[in-house]
User: Fold these one by one.
Assistant:
Number 1:
Amino acid sequence: MSKRLQNKVAVVTGGTSGIGLAVANLFAAEGAKVFVLGRRQPELTAAEKTIGNGSVGIQGDVSNPADIDRAYASIKEKAGRIDVLFANAGMAHVARIEEIDEAQYHETFGTNVAGVLFAVQKALPLMHAGSNIVVNASMWTIKGVPGFGLLSASKAAVRSLVRTWTSELKDRQIRVNAVSPGYCNTAAIEHATGSYEGAQELLAQFALNVPMGRVSQPDEVAKAVLFLASDDASYVNGVELFVDGGTVQV
Ligand SMILES: NC(=O)c1ccc[n+]([C@@H]2O[C@H](COP(=O)([O-])OP(=O)(O)OC[C@H]3O[C@@H](n4cnc5c(N)ncnc54)[C@H](OP(=O)(O)O)[C@@H]3O)[C@@H](O)[C@H]2O)c1
C-alpha cells in the first residue's frame, strides 16, 4: 500500500515532544519530509534523529513572528512549499480568575493564539490547492473547568479561527481542521505538576473522568491528525475532531 504522505512537505510546530513529536514521527513514517519547530536546540537535534526521513529541526518561538518568518524562509529554501501544516505548539497556565496575572495572559494568548495565527498566515504563501492545515486545539474549547479559563479561551479562539479560515481559504482549496485532544500523557503534564510522580498522580485522577477509563498516549492523537492531514479526509473541512476517549461527549 502506498504511504499516505508520500513526498509531502510537512511542518509541525512544537514537534520535539509529546503530540507534536508523535505526529512528526508518523508523518515521516508515511513518507513526508518533516520540518519541526521548537525553542530548545538540543531537543530539535534529538528529534531530527528520532523522526528521520530527512527531517529538519528549526529553532524558534512561535509567539515571535520574526522567528516564524525566519523558519519559513529556511523551509522555502530547502523544500519550496508546504503541503501540510500542523500548528501544534501550545502551553497552559492553571489559574482561577482571582489568580490570573497579565504575564500568564500574554504568554497563553501569545503562544496559543498569536502563535497559531501567524504560523498559519505566514505559511500560506508556501501552500497551494490541495494542501491542508490542522490546528491543535483541546477538548476544553467547549468546557468551563475551574482553573482552565485561560487555556480554554485560547483554544476556543483557535477553534473559531479554523471556522473562519475554512471560509477564507475555500477559493484556494486549502482544507483547515482542528483536532481536540483530551487528557494526553505528555511532558506538559509533568511541567504543570513539577515532577514525574505528580504527573502520574494527576493522570490517574484525570482517567477517572474518561469514559474509557484511561488517558491517551500521543500516538493515538497522531493517528487522528494523520487522518485529517491525508487524502483520507479529502472532504473533511472546518471540523473539530475530538480525540478525548469520550470525555466531553457524555
Ligand atoms: N497533553 C494534553 O493533555 C493536551 C490536551 C489537549 C491539547 N493539548 C495541546 O497539544 C499541544 C502539544 O502539547 P503536548 O501536551 O504535546 O506538550 P509537550 O509535550 O510539552 O510539547 C510541547 C511542544 O511545543 C513546543 N513549544 C512550546 N512552546 C513553544 C513556542 N512558544 N514556540 C515553539 N515551540 C513551542 C515544545 O518545545 P520547546 O519547549 O523546545 O519550545 C514542545 O516541542 C498543545 O497545543 C496543547 O495545548 C495537549
Number 2:
Amino acid sequence: MTYDRLVCANCAAPVNEGRCPVCRANRARLQQEGPFGGGLNPMALIALLAILIAAVALLAHQTA
Ligand SMILES: [Zn+2]
C-alpha cells in the first residue's frame, strides 16, 4: 500500500512528512505492513502450500 498521498486528519499535511504524532503513528503502522501491504496473510500461504502439495501428489500418482 502506498501512503505518500495519504493526508492526515489531524494536521491536513501528507502523512509521509510526519508533521504531527498522528502522522508519525500512521506512517509507522503503514510501514510495518511491508511490501505485501498485509494482503498476504499466513492462512493464505498455508492454503497455497496445501494446494501445491495436493497438485504434486496428484501429478506423482498419475505418472507412477
Ligand atoms: Zn498529521
Number 3:
Amino acid sequence: MEKVLVTGAGGYIGSVLVPKLLERGYKVKAVDRFFFGMEKLKPHPNLELIKEDTRVMPEEIFKGIDYIVDLVAISNDPTGERFNEATWQINHYSRVRTAKLGKKFGVKKYIFPSSCSIYGFQEDIVDENSPVNPLTTYAKANFQAEKDIIPLADKNFTVVVLRFSTVFGYSPRMRFDLAINGMTYGAWKTGRLPLMRDGSQYRPFVHIEDVSEAVIKFLEFSDETKINGEIFNVGGDELNYQIGELGKIVAELVEKETGKSVDIEWYGDPDKRSYRVSFKKIKNVINWTPKRKAEDGVKEIIQKLESGEIDKTIQTITLDWYTELEKWYNLIKELEMYGGILNIKFEKGDL
Ligand SMILES: NC(=O)c1ccc[n+]([C@@H]2O[C@H](COP(=O)([O-])OP(=O)(O)OC[C@H]3O[C@@H](n4cnc5c(N)ncnc54)[C@H](O)[C@@H]3O)[C@@H](O)[C@H]2O)c1
C-alpha cells in the first residue's frame, strides 16, 4: 500500500482529497494544526491524523512516505496581508523544508499546490511560460516557494507544481470566502449577491472535486519525464469568467432554484487582480480536463444550505477565524492564572 503525506489535510481541499485517496487504496498521513477542527476528516483504518505544525514537524513523519501533497497554507490574500510573517513561514519556509525532507527520506513525488493568483494582473491569456506578476504576500510567497522547490527535482524525486484556479464547491471545511461559494451564499440567504468591483476582472475557477481528481491523476501519472520539474495550471479554458458575468450566472441560477429574486451588491475597491489562463498544457500532457461547471457548484451549495448541512459561520471565513483565534489566545493568556480561568488548580488550605 502506498503512503501519502498530506499537509493541511483538514482544510477545504484536504478534507475532500483525503477521502478520495483512501477510496483509491492509499494510506494517508494527515498532518494539520486542525485550526478548523479534527472532525472534518472521518476516521478510516488507513488514515492517521497527526496534529502538528508543518514548520517544525519531526523527521520521522517522513519515513516510509511515497508521495507528498503539500496543501498547508495561509490560504488567501487578505489573511496573507493580516498575518504576513506567518504566511511567509508557512507558505514558503515550511513547504521548502517539507520538500527537502521528502527528498532526503526517499519520497518519490512531491506535489506543490500553488495558485493562478501569482499571475496577478495580465491583459492577455497567460500560460505556464508567461511572466508572473504576484501582487500580494500570499502570491509572492507561493511564487518564491515555486522557485525554491522546482530545482530539487531529479530522477529520483519528482516535483510537480500545480497552479490551482480559484476553487468552488462543497467541502466539510466549508469556505464562503471563495468567490462562487460566497456569491451563492449571499444570493441564497439575503437575495443580495456580493460582487467585487468593478466586475470586468477575469478569474479562472475549478470545482473542488475536479481539483482533487487532478491531484490524484498527477500522483498516478507514471511518465515522470513529462511532469517532473514542470508547472501546470489546473482548471479549464471555459471556466475563465469575468466576475460580473459570473455574478449574473449565479444570481439567475439561485433565482431559478429558490424562486426568490436576487440583486447584485457591489463591494470593495476595484480588484487589481485580473487574469485569464490557458489550460492547454494539463490537457495535452496528462489528458485531464475538469468535468464540472460553476453551475454544478452553485446547485450543490444551495442543496447543502437548504438541508441545513452547512451555514456561514465564522469558521467559514478564513481571515475572520484566524483573527478570532488570535484575539482569544491573547485574551486567555492575559486572564489565565493557576492553569485556568474559573476552574483553577490549587491546594485548598484548612478553614
Ligand atoms: N481554495 C482555493 O481556491 C485555492 C486556490 C489556489 C490554491 N490553493 C492552495 O491549496 C492549498 C489548500 O487550500 P485550502 O483552500 O484547502 O485552505 P485551508 O485554509 O482550508 O486549509 C489549510 C489548512 O492548513 C492548516 N494549517 C495552516 N497552517 C498550518 C501549520 N503551520 N501547520 C499545520 N497545519 C496548518 C489549517 O489548519 C488548514 O486546515 C493551499 O496551499 C492554497 O494556497 C487553494
Number 4:
Amino acid sequence: MQKSYKTEINPTQEQIRKINKTIGTCRFIYNFYIAHNKELYNKGEKFMTAKSFSVWLNNEFLLNSPEYLWIKDVSSKSVKKSMENAYTAFTRFFKKQSRFPRFKKKNKSDVKMYFVKNNPKDCFCERHRINIPTLGWVRLKEKGYIPTTKQGYVIKSGIVSCKAGRYYVSVLIEIPDQNEPQLNNFGLGIDLGLKDFAIISNGITKKNINKTAKIRKLEKQLKREQRCLSRKYEDLKKRNNKIKNKMKGEATRQNIRKQVLKVQKLHHKIDNIRTDHINKCVNEIVKTKPSYITIEDLNVKGMMKNKHLSKAVASQKFYEFRTKLEAKCKELGIELRIVDRWYPSSKLCHECGCIKRDLKLSDREYICECGYHADRDYNASLNLRDATSYKIA
Ligand SMILES: [Zn+2]
C-alpha cells in the first residue's frame, strides 16, 4: 500500500535557486512539448509521444541548438516527468476527457519538481530532514511528520512544489502490508477431552476422530492384519524347527514381509487421518480470529503413565494439536493462554463461581445449586475462556 505525505520544507538559498530552476525548466519543457506537437500537427506530421519527444530533444534538437543546453542542468527525472505530464494532457484531450492542453504560465502554474529513488541513499528521511536527489539534505519544518527511513519506511518518489513563496515536499511511501489480520473482540476457551476431542466456548464441538466409523473400521482391520502377522511368525518358528521344511520357510518369510507392509500401510493411513483431523481443528479454530485462545496445560506425560488413558491420549495427538495451535496463533498474532493444569476448569460453576468438589468423571452434566446447569465440558470451556490466571505461550 502507498501513502502520500506532504509537508513544508525549509530549503537553503542555494536549494531554492535549484528548485526554481528545475521547476522553470520543467515548465519550459512542458510548453515546448505542446508547441512542438502543435507544429507537427500543422505540418501534417505524426504526433510525438513523450518518449519520442525525449529522443528527438536529446539526439536532434539539443545538438543543433546548443544555446538550450541549460535544459540539461537540472534533474533529468523531473524533466522527463514534465514530458509525461504533457503527454497525459494530450491523451486526455484525445479521449475527449479534457480540452486541448494549455501552456503553463510562470508563477500561475502548478509545475512541480519531481524526484525518484534511484539508489539506496536517495530519499533517505530523518525526523528533521530529507535527502532529495540533486538537492541534498533539505530541512523539514515539521519534525517527524514523515515516517523515517530508520522506522523502516521507504520513500519511492516525491515532488517539491512552491506556492506563495513557500516550499513543500510530498512523498509517496510504501507502507508494509499488514500481514496480521484484524482480530475479533472475543476470546475462546478450549477444553480438550477424551469423549469429544475439543469443546469450544463458542458452542462448537470437535469430534474425537477415533470414535468415527471410518477409524473404527480401519482399527479393526489393523487388528486383524496384526493377528495374521503374528500367526505367520508363529508358523515360521515351528517350521524352523523342522529342517525338511526349509524351502517352505523361505516362502513364509516372503509372506511375512508382505504382511508387515500391509500393517505399516494401515498404520500410516490411520495416522494420516488423525493428523488431518488435528490440522482441520486448528485451522477452523483460528479462522474465527479470536483475540486470544485459552487451553489447559495438558499433563500429557502424566496421562501417558495411566494405562487406561495412554492409548486414548496418544491416539488423539493432543501434543501435536498444542504445537500446531501455538504456531498458528503466533503467525496470526492470537494470544495463546495456558492455564495451569490444577485450575479447576471442570469443577467451577461458570455462573456463580463455586467449586463442586465431588464432581465425578462420569458426571456429564454440571448441575450447580445456584440453578445453573450445562454440559460438563462446555462449562469447562467457558471457565477456561474467562480464566484470569494464565501464562502466555
Ligand atoms: Zn453455580
